[in-house]
Design brief:
about 230 residues; 5-stranded mixed sheet; 8 helices
């Protein structure tokens, strides 16, 4: 199922992980630890992957059948919408690469798709995206900018996992490259800590609830090279 999708098979640390609040979780990724929390129901991931794949098909079809060849104002190839474009933010071994859901070459907007439940959707409507999601979209923005494509704005489209398309919520803000650069510097610090310290000495995020979704969450024992019981 979705565990075999390219997004799920990714081993290198990508833009979707750099902004995670828990430094210890990020350190496990840099240390190459294998996930131990694998009992989660795969349905949410399956639905998310299916939505991404079908959106890509629909937008590519829109490019070809509705927009046709580029007009005089479009000089970034024969597409208004760049779908699942591979971008790299940062440089050399310190850069992070990932597949960006969407880039609008006419409006210079970078867009990420998120498929979320009703509770999460309400939270994002009221409070905006998490730091992790916000960091991710600015990293994609930096990747497109470094590839020579102008970026004016970044956006996250929150699709309801249940409900109707009319419940779609789009958050956006001006592109701020400093957010991406700060995240890359933090990631470098965590990578260095992971190489120099026992994992248990690296701070964990204080929100125990978030641990439920962490691939390295293993309650009942101390944090070691294989798993973590949460903050502490």
């Amino acid at each position: 199922m979705s565990a075999n999708a390219p997004r799920s098979r990714q081993r290198a640390v990508g833009p979707s992980e750099i902004g995670v609040d828990c430094m210890r979780r990020l350190a496990y990724r840099y240390a190459g630890a294998e996930p131990v929390n694998t009992a989660a129901d795969p349905w949410f991931a399956f639905v998310g992957t299916a939505v991404h794949e079908n959106l890509a098909i629909a937008i590519d079809r829109y490019n070809a059948e509705v927009l046709g060849p580029p007009n005089g104002s479009r000089d970034y190839g024969q597409r208004r919408y760049w779908v699942e474009e591979r971008v790299t933010a940062g440089a050399d071994q310190h850069g992070v690469s990932g597949s960006c859901d969407l880039y609008d070459a006419d409006r210079h907007v970078v867009i990420d798709h998120k498929v979320v439940g009703a509770t999460a959707l309400k939270k994002y409507i009221n409070h905006g995206p998490s730091n992790q999601y916000r960091t991710q979209i600015h990293l994609y923005g930096l990747g497109h900018a470094q590839a020579g494509r102008p970026v004016r704005e970044v956006a996250i489209a929150f699709y309801p996992r249940s409900g109707y398309l009319t419940d779609l919520h789009v958050w956006s803000e001006p592109y701020r490259p400093q957010i991406a650069h700060d995240a890359l510097r933090r990631a470098t610090t965590v990578r260095q800590l992971a190489a120099a310290l026992p994992i248990g000495h690296i701070p964990a995020h204080a929100d125990q609830v978030a641990c439920t979704w962490c691939p390295f969450y293993r309650p009942g024992g101390p944090a070691d090279t294989t798993g973590c019981p949460g903050p502490g």
